[in-house]
User: What shape does this take?
Amino acid sequence: MKTKYCLCPSGYEVASPRITESILAECIPVPISDSYVLPFSDVLDWTQFSVPIPVSKIPEIKEIVSGIPENTYLKLQANVLKVQRHFVVNHPAKILDVMHLLLHSIWLRRLNLGLEDV
Assistant: This one.
């Protein structure tokens, strides 16, 4: 039996490989955090391919994921497959792979911070 949902607690580090690993394993990520900024959240709608859960809901995780209807799970799963390419390192880089999204995110943050051209 294949795992449908992968728990991804934020941990103590700034970044965690758990989310990327779950996506590459074709598993719907379940990020558990109150303040973790999800990768590429400025360009990806995480509600379309993950099930974010606040820390206060940890005791309810089993009920939350088991209560997700099959048709919703299938949509989340299909979207996980669509976003996989954004989390892959290619050599040379390919359009919309992790390198492109990293550069795009840096560019967007630079615009949002109003940094002047150097």
